[in-house]
Amino acid sequence: MRWTPRIALSLALLVGLIARAWGAFDDGIYWPDEIYQSLEVAHAQVYGYGLIPWEFVDGARNWSLPAVVTALLEVSKLVGLDTPLGYVRLVKLVFAFLGVLTTLGVFRLARAFSAPPWAAAASAAMYALAAPVIYFAPRAMSENAGAAPLVWGLALLFEDPAPKPRKILWAGSLVGLAVLFRLQLAAVALGLVGVLFIGRRWSVLKPLVLALCAWALLYGGLDALTWHQLPSAKYGGWFHSVLVYVQFNVVEGRGAHWGTSAWTYYFRFLFTSMPTVTVGLALGLAATLWRRSWVLPLLTVLFLAVHLATPHKEFRFLVPILPLLFASVGVGMTGLADGLVARLSVLGVAAGVWSTLQLTSLTMGELGAYLEQRPQAPAWGDFANVNRLLVTAGQRPDLCGIRIDVADLAWTGGATYLHKRAPLYRRNVPPQLGYFNYLLAAKGLSGLELISEDQGVALYRLPIATCATDASYPWKLF
Q1: Together in a domain, 400 and 294
Q2: pLDDT at residue 212, as a whole number
Q3: Is residue 33 one of the residues assigned to a domain?
Q4: Same domain as 345, residue 393
Q5: What are the tens digits of pLDDT across the range 166-183?
Q6: What pLDDT was estimated at residue 292?
Q7: Which among 174, 310, 317, 347 is least surrounded, fewest beta carbons within 10 Å?
Q8: In terms of Cα–Cα distance, which of 110, 99, 183 is closest to 133?
């Protein structure tokens, strides 16, 4: 690399890291999965209590992501970060750093497909600086966990014309790890096998299939180890989470309970969340296809097709495949004159910078969420005031239960933020039951002791000396 693109890449990585680290201090929630598919389940493992979602009651997810977060929570205990804001920050900072590794993977992947240094650096810079990518990066979601190993696995596989078997096994293992974190990435893994089969690259295909099969066995074995004792298990044992997930979402179509969207959803909100960057992505993808470099576009389309066919759509579902889209921008500049590549790359970096400048003004509507309820709500800090007050409540020595009237439990930080073995109730639980002595409600209630307030939400103490024991509290999120 020449020094200029190297400096541009380094600056983009640095700015991207700072922006993602800043996002790690946001206690808001985009979607409940970032708490209840990882942090809350891990909290239950480490501290013995937490609100367990249906996926980990019926076994519709494997334990790979919660296991990683559990390990991080154990580390936080060892280093003295044994508080909600301590271990949550640690987990989010680790995911933020993972996002920077993914950025570097975008550069390597673009270079693997012969993108010039400037073009590859511009691709990575656009990814590092794109507002929605920064927004999602610190969140403990399977989409983020799967993105990094996927992009690095593809980069390792394609950067050498004739990679050695050991390198192929490493590449296949990274892709297999990505699928372990995010099942939908199996479409990319199968597409990769098809690409090599069509190209008759047998020397690469055989060890790759071997590695993928090994990780498939690991996937099934993990389910057999963790889900074999479910009392209500319909399948049980090997690949239990896969079968339950497919039954729920594909056969029964129950994922539509959380809303349905038209097939244009992803294209629409890619543009609304980062307009200038999306134009660059579209041009880069078209240029990549024009020069008949079809591997990355094909893998992207296969992944996208799975989600287009699914009625329930969320922007975050695109996160694992975005690195491939951004790498395509650099690949599309291959073969152009050096001066033109440099000018186009500068435009790409400028588009990324402009997107970063719009970061704090992102709305939920621009990210495709709450379109009918509150599309203009700021994306940053959504329900953060509720979570901060949960932390305050957990520090009260007399807390024996809390009811939350200002949000459904799924849109709060749960026991992860409360960090006290006390029941959390929804608003429809009558206060006369006596099972809780604290209340999170709108500011301005009279007749109750005000403990703290935060942006229109207040924590109140009820005039109850001791809570009644709720022996039937399920510690489940339904």
Answers
A1: no
A2: 97
A3: yes
A4: no
A5: 999 999 999 999 999 999
A6: 80
A7: 347
A8: 99
Residue 321 CA: distances (Å) to CA of 20, 169, 266, 293, 297: 19, 22, 12, 17, 10
Contact 112, 154 (CB under 8 A): yes
Percent of the chain with pLDDT over 70: 97
Name residue 460's beta-bridge partners.
439, 450
Are residues 326 and 411 located together in one domain of the fold?
no
From residue 394, alpha-carbon distances to 58, 387, 411 in Å are 29, 11, 17
**Structure-token pair, residue 206:** 């055989």
**Which of 148, 17, 133, 216 minimizes the C-alpha distance to 156?**
148
The yes-or-no verdict on residue 233 having pLDDT over 60 is no
**Statement to judge: residues 9 and 126 lie in one domain:** yes
What's the CA gap between 168 and 462, in Å, rounded?
62
pTM: 0.94
Query: Is 252 inside a domain boundary?
Result: no
- Same domain? 274 vs 130: yes
Considering the domain boundaries, does residue 406 fall inside one? yes
- pLDDT given for residue 352 in this prediction: 95
For the chain, the domain total comes to 2
- At 47-104, the pLDDT tens digits run 999 999 999 998 999 999 999 999 999 999 999 999 999 999 999 999 999 999 999 9
Residues 106 and 157 in one domain: yes
- Residue 477: beta bridge partners? 53
Structural domain containing residue 61 = 3-238+263-304+314-356
Would you list the DSSP string of 239-300?
Answer: THHHHHHHIIIIIS-GGGGG----TTHHHHHHHHHSHHHHHHHHHHHHHHHHTT--HHHHHH
pLDDT tens digits, one per residue of 377-407: 999 999 999 999 999 999 999 999 999 999 9
> What element of type H or E holds 442?
strand 438-442
pLDDT confidence bin for 108, thresholds 50/70/90:
very high
Q: List 53's β-bridge partners, or say none.
A: 477
**Among residues 163, 105, 129, which one has the least CA distance to residue 351?**
129
pLDDT (mean) for 452-465: 93
Q: SS3 for 474?
A: coil
- Of the two residues 240 and 258, the one the predictor is more confident about is 240
Residue 82: C-alpha distances to residues 52, 73, 86, 131, 418 (Å): 21, 8, 6, 31, 12
**What residues pair up with 454 in beta bridges, in sequence order?**
457
Whether residues 398 and 343 share a domain: the answer is no
Pairing of strands 449-454, 476-477: unpaired
